[in-house]
Amino acid sequence: MPTRKAVEQALLKTLFNHNGVIKEFAKGEEIVNEIADTFDLSQKQRTILLERKYYKEDRIVKSPLWHRLLYRAAESLAKNNLVSRPKSTFHLTNKKEWMLTEDGFSEALKLSNIPESQKEFLPTKSFELQKYIRKITQATRPKNYNPFDKEKKITKVTTESAMRNRGFRQAVIEAYDYKCAFCGLKINSPDTRFWEVEAAHIVPSSSMGKDDIWNGLSLCRLHHWIFDTGWFTLQNDFTIIISTKINSLPSKFGLMGNDNVIRIFSSRNSKILLPNREEIYPHQNAIAWHRENIFSR
Ligand SMILES: [Zn+2]
């Protein structure tokens, strides 16, 4: 059987490959087998039973040794603050899952030979980040929202501002189920680590736009560019408006196969895709600013 240290490392890597979370270990859980696979454990090794005697109650409890080893490794990671226990994660997400902490995330990156700088782009969940995400997605929607952050200075990146960036990005793309709000495209990289969509600011960062869910939209790279350059904007009811400049665009511009990537929306009078809770829809104040200041009529 593998050593506990080796199991701990395998556990961190598996957590990373599963976006930072795995279910609480239970009998027949797929994850238990998945980690056993990384050690090429035989069927016999997977099913060896460990007997524990409870003298007081005069009974014997049998549990699989591999299961026990896995649980011990997870407990040890939790003691070292590299993962959060299902009980603690439950308070945050209502799911009984083991979740990476920020330190555990860093350790998993090291073990997977991925530079720490990639943290910013990975959609991996961490306990601290989820706390932040919960804060920005559960906040009460203000009636009169000010989408500008006067304090926002693009000076040096602090731990706090890096966390805010990642939190904004994750909260937004998760709220839109990893889809582009305009075209609905949903795709990740072949290794499943990266999502194609980006969290766009409605009032851009360069204009001091806040990193709030109300100032965010999940967009594919193409539509992010099209939105930021003013080809599109939104009515207050989230209907897409496209620039009249489309009529003077050379006919071969903007084609993807036979479709024009901008014009496909002009005939539909359609609305963007929205999150499942109204509380976190983009705010009309941010949209109005985009319409007045970025959109090209
Ligand atoms: Zn798109």
The proportion of residues in beta strands is 5-15%
The ordered H/E elements are: HEHHEEHEHEHHHEEHEEEEH
Number of domains: 2
Tell me the total number of β-strands.
Answer: 11
Helix residue percentage: 25-40%
Low-pLDDT segments: none
What is the compact description of this entry?
The chain has helices at 4-17, 30-38, 43-47, 65-79, 86-93, 102-111, 127-138, 159-175, 221-228, 284-293; strands at residues 21-23, 49-54, 59-64, 83-84, 97-100, 198-201, 216-219, 232-234, 240-242, 255-256, 259-260. The chain is α+β, with helices and mostly antiparallel strands and 297 residues long.
What brief labels describe this structure?
single chain, 297 residues, alpha+beta, 3-stranded antiparallel β-sheet, elongated, binds zinc ion
Describe the structure.
- The chain is of the alpha+beta class.
- It has 2 domains: 4-134, no CATH class; 139-293, no CATH class.
- Helices cover 36% and strands 13% of the residues.
- The strands form 5 sheets. Strands 1-5-4 form a 3-stranded antiparallel sheet. Strands 2-3 form a two-stranded antiparallel ribbon.
- A hairpin with a 5-residue loop joins β8 and β9.
- The model has no long low-confidence stretch (mean pLDDT 90).
- It binds zinc ion (ZN).
